[in-house]
Amino acid sequence: MVRLDMKKKRSFARFYAIAKEKHIDLSEHKETLVSQFTDGRTDSLREMTEDEYEEMCDCLQSGRPAGMSKEEFRSELRYLRSGVLKRLQKLGVDTSDDCMVAVNNYCLSPKIAGKPFGLLTLEELRKLIPKLEAMLKKKRTEQPKPLRTIPIFINPNQLPS
User: Could you tell me the pTM of the whole model?
Assistant: First the structure.
């Protein structure tokens, strides 16, 4: 006879795959993460509700902060990406390419962001805007170097007639 009250065994493979991909040390952070997404109710993955588990995985995967709705996240991400792209365009980076090759190459520089544009988190985008603003300000204040003039002496007696 099959018992109907048995709990369905849940797989936590998604959580472990995301943690591996994001290089999250689960021995140090798993209980804290679980507690954060259950509002302190538990620090055990098994005791999380399905909704709490999905929320945690979604946030870890997308970089969305806990407590921020998906709509708010998308809106904020769109706003910050637009701000970064506008500044990159002013710096002379080609932002019109659908593949974003020039933008990604620019962002990959360790001095800029160190990773492709599409993988930048909200916090990284927020930090990048003032950095780009400073670069733009420096670009505006730099005066072109004056041309060095070299005197040319012409002897009027040697001019063609």
Answer: 0.66
